[in-house]
Specification:
Keywords: Signal. The protein has 369 residues and is mainly alpha-helical. Helices cover 36% and strands 5% of the residues. It has one domain.
């Protein structure tokens, strides 16, 4: 059995080595980018405790866009690298990929900043704004603050700046509120292509939209059976996706969630209206109940302010015969040790029991720097 296991291990290692060589032929290691932890997906099996969050997820589940929050695939990582390494902008003026529901015409969303800004203000935005790019989710009222946060984290390809809402995200929010049929694929694809077209100017080091990239690649693999799955080695699986977890629902300057315009009737159904989460949210929104006060967590003290016990040895008879290297005094002193953790200090030199110093149990003994 041992020989069989060793034989199988050698075969697996050989296949893996061959696969690495094939992968390097497609995209050299130095040309690859980091697959970023962005473009998260929603796990519908997880039930959030926060009622407003649950109501937002329930409302999203009723939209034609909901599948975009869930979609994922399992493909070789090298195909994801090849996609981002080789894709280029097509012929100028070429049409975008679009999706259209049968027998339904798309409604053109507002395209000007003035219209979108006016809409955001209707939702109870608490700060002065002139442009959509100046809209921060922290200043939005519930449940639109949660809507914006979920849209940003799941449908965005950015790894930073997630607290801002872009024009395309605001257009999606506009559709949800007014229950209009908007070509979501076009909105997402425009932002997707923007990231591709500006890769070089931004010195991109991370991969945008990893979850959507996998979906695109999986589509072509399903259409063309000649594309190999490469022994299913070095795959980017569902487990590699970033899952949308807990969100901060109260802005830094507030102690409670602030509610603005209610959810539009077109964004609900009977089951949702009868749910405990919706009725809890509604009580908060109309002022019949008060949300729980936000917990404020104190930041941990910086290492430079931590106190460290430093043991200073007493001089012994033997030490008098040796040349002194530094001045010593008896006792235990408490000193600041800026920027140095306790674990990186050296342990103290051993001394004779009869002439050593007694230290408190479990105290950290460090040699004087």
């Amino acid at each position: 059995m041992t020989h069989l296991a060793c034989g199988i291990a050698r075969i697996i290692n050989l296949i893996a080595a061959q696969q690495v060589a094939l992968d390097n032929a497609l995209v050299a290691p130095e040309n690859r980018v980091q697959i970023g932890k962005c473009n998260m997906r929603i796990d519908p099996t997880k039930t959030p405790k926060e009622p407003t969050y649950q109501v937002v997820l329930d409302a999203l589940a009723l939209t034609t866009l909901y599948h975009v929050f869930l979609i994922t695939a399992e493909v070789p990582k090298i195909y994801m690298q090849q996609f981002w390494h080789t894709i280029t902008k097509g012929v100028k003026g070429s049409s975008l990929y679009q999706f259209k529901l049968p027998n339904q015409e798309f409604v053109v969303p507002p395209s000007s900043d003035l219209e979108i800004v006016s809409f955001i203000k209707e939702l109870g935005y608490t700060d002065d704004i002139d442009y959509v790019t100046k809209v921060y989710t922290d200043h939005m009222h519930q449940p639109w603050r949660t809507f914006s946060a979920v849209i940003n984290r799941c449908l965005s390809g950015k790894t930073t700046g997630l607290d801002k809402i872009r024009l395309s995200r605001a257009q999606i929010l506009w559709k949800m509120y007014y229950n209009q049929n908007i070509d979501f694929v076009e909105l997402l694809w425009e932002d997707f292509m923007f990231q591709i077209d500006n890769r070089d100017s931004k010195k991109q080091e991370k991969m945008y939209y990893p979850r959507f990239t996998k979906a695109i690649i999986q589509h072509f693999i399903s259409k063309d059976k000649s594309i190999s799955m490469r022994n299913r080695l070095f795959m980017h699986t569902i487990q590699d996706d970033s899952i949308l977890g807990s969100l901060r629902f109260v802005s830094k300057t507030k102690e409670y969630q602030v509610y603005g315009a209610l959810i539009h009737a077109g964004m609900t159904n009977r089951n949702m209206l009868n749910s405990t989460a919706y009725n809890t949210y509604l009580a908060f929104a109309i002022g019949a109940a008060t949300p729980k006060k936000a917990r404020k967590f104190k930041k941990p003290a910086s290492p430079s302010k931590k106190k460290t016990l430093i043991a200073v040895e007493e001089p012994t008879e033997n030490s008098a015969k040796k040349p002194a290297t530094r001045r010593q005094s008896a006792g235990v002193q408490i000193r600041d040790t800026p920027g140095v953790s306790v674990s990186k200090k050296k342990a103290p030199a051993k001394t004779e029991r009869s002439k050593g110093i007694k230290l408190l149990s479990k105290a950290v003994i460090l040699e004087e720097a």
